[in-house]
Amino acid sequence: MATHFRFLDLPAEIRLEIYRHVLITRTKDGSLPITKLQPRHLRKPICTHTPRTSILSSCRLIYHEAVPILYQQTVFSFGLEVEVLDFFHEVGRHNAKHIRHFKMEISFTAINPPLDPRGRLNLDIVRCIGNYCPNLREVEVGWNDYHHYLCCRPALVECAEYFRLLVTRFKNAFPNLKKISSPEMRARGRQFMYWRDRFIPNSRVEGWWDNGCDLLEANGWDLSKKVR
């Protein structure tokens, strides 16, 4: 009499390894894959990997076993925009609670200073995301276009205040957070300051960027440069 192989007859630990192989594709350096959420295309995220999610529709047991792996071992990357909340709403709290890692891109530009209403709204979004991701462990912060904004002393003072508010928001929103990092912040800041001082001599703010980085490190940020 012919016998049939049944996937669910495998030991649970073997099934979990299969889910990792099917759903998670490590990058060449062994780091976690990234799924980038575009605010205008949240329904079609950009993935650095190709998860074979059809396995999730096999049966309810497989779905409940595999979904935590999919969300826990993927880095979600997005800008702090209101539309991001739509993504968490679609995913739902049950799935979002499994997210452990994400990367945020924050912009400092002349049309979007950090403490204007939109900048403050971004800080509030951090708190809202905290309601969906209570088990978040690691956050990486990227800074976009801030070299266009750092043109005068008031702007620098605002950025320092923004850093302080971010530290407070992160600590309050994510009680289980283990690591906040911004790997290229110190190096890129020095580069932008170098070019800025060439065009604006005697600006007298040479040490500001390093002072801001020291403030972040004193509050638990990891600014060591990494290669993803």
Automatic annotation (TrEMBL):
It comes from the Eukaryota. Coiled coil: none annotated. InterPro entries: AN11006-like, DUF7730. Residues 52-110 form the DUF7730 domain. Pfam families: DUF7730. This is DUF7730 domain-containing protein.
